[in-house]
What we know:
Blueprint: H1 6-9, H2 12-15, E1 40-42, E2 51-53, H3 73-80, H4 86-110, H5 126-145, H6 150-161, H7 163-169, H8 174-202, H9 208-226, H10 231-251, H11 253-274, E3 280-281, E4 284-285
Antiparallel strand pairs: 1-2, 3-4
Amino acid sequence: xxxxxxxxxxxxxxxxxxxxxxxxxxxxxxxxxxxxxxxxxxxxxxxxxxxxxxxxxxxxxxxxxxxxxxxxxxxxxxxxxxxxxxxxxxxxxxxxxxxxxxxxxxxxxxxxxxxxxxxxxxxxxxxxxxxxxxxxxxxxxxxxxxxxxxxxxxxxxxxxxxxxxxxxxxxxxxxxxxxxxxxxxxxxxxxxxxxxxxxxxxxxxxxxxxxxxxxxxxxxxxxxxxxxxxxxxxxxxxxxxxxxxxxxxxxxxxxxxxxxxxxxxxxxxxxxxxxxxxxxxxxxxxxxxx
Length: 290
């Protein structure tokens, strides 16, 4: 079945008049190795071992530093202050995602594309509900079989020390508020602003189909980098970004934000239930039932 993206993408350049590219645009990849375009590393405090997250090919694994137990010490320290005060964490998250949404609307307005209109009713939410199902099924597989993959075990260990205890202490509506904030704020930033802006810019010197693919790639890559706790989580978030990007093209921002929010809500609850057994909650320690 042939998929024509031209109708869905028509007019992107008109929406973003300030983002049109010049007549000649040099290639950013002309003199660089693809495996080195997105290197990301996290420097540890003095005197500690550290980990280098490499997105290069398997032949470059020799340059990857040893993963140690204190690889995520900085992340754990950042969450430790919220232990016993989960609603403070919810409040900070609401402020953060609210600022992300407001900033996206403001920047888009300056660029001549008021994305706030995309958030207005009427809403067709059925596609958003349906598109949530594949992501949740993939998460079930990752959690159930993740112990066989070292990098998933790293993520599990980190979440057991950070997010999981907080979610277990929250009232039932706490994870929902977190999920709604992430769904609306991140989709407004990555899809409505970055992806649409990239499509509009690329569309000025190539076909609409190529521009659409390029816009999805740019936004998804940035989305992956924004969630790059390790190599696995980078690729998982990048895949999710591509998924959300296609959904945004087909069904719009409300549907994509709903899918993102419902997936995050399910992920919070399911991961806290499965990976939260045997973790410390408040001052009590829960033991795993045999």
